[in-house]
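Hi support team,

I submitted a single chain yesterday and got back a structure, but I'm not sure I'm reading the token output correctly. Could someone confirm the output below corresponds to the sequence I sent? I've pasted both exactly as they appear in my results page.

Thanks,
R.
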Amino acid sequence: MLETISSDSAEAGRARRQRLLAVLRISAFGMIAAGGLFAGGFGLFGTYVSELTTPDDVEPADAIIVLTGGQARLDAALDLLKTGKGKRLLISGVNPVASRESLRAATGGDKDLFSCCVDIDTAALDTIGNAEESAKWVQSHDYGSVILVTNNYHMPRSLLEMNRLVSNTDLQPYPVVNTRLDDGGWLTKPEALRVIFTEYTKYVAALARSVMPSGEVMADDEPRYTATIRKPDAATP
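Hi R., thanks for writing in. Yes, this is the structure output for that exact sequence:
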């Protein structure tokens, strides 16, 4: 009788070990597959953003939104406004301590242009905040088309976050390129590689969040930006 019990216990132990090994093998395979998918996606992402170029021309839109993060972005957005590509500009994510005049002076913007057609958002702290505050601004002005200005590596995530909240608005990407990284150049520059990898991980997280129900901006949410003095439909110079 004891021998039978011992044999049954040994058999049960072997069965448990086999199940555990099977689970471990499946887990290991899943991790390897996930790692390969992540690495492959990174390669595609890096290639895509490195080949983005600033358009020679862009179709006119109702308005322009620029996400802060570099002088080149602001210069590009102000040039678009000056040439009449949009009637109004929102600069999103400005440091709250920066005054309108100091921002204008730093960008070399025309005083009349700033006073008539530039709004400044100081509430947004990150790309998600940029999207939320921009969505309120777009909805408050009932804009149907917007030119979105940001750096090339930042454009995919910016579009993803914006489209979640203003899906009925035509978003025209206007990527700003500080350094040409096409032909695989981004793989040989450590700083560029770091920036693109960091942005890719954030993009993956944004993709995961995008499959969840979006917290739509409520119509009664007030946009927190510094508006210009004149009416929104004032013509640009």
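A quick pointer for reading it: The domain at 63-226 is CATH 3.40.50 (Rossmann fold). Let us know if anything else looks off.

Best,
Support desk
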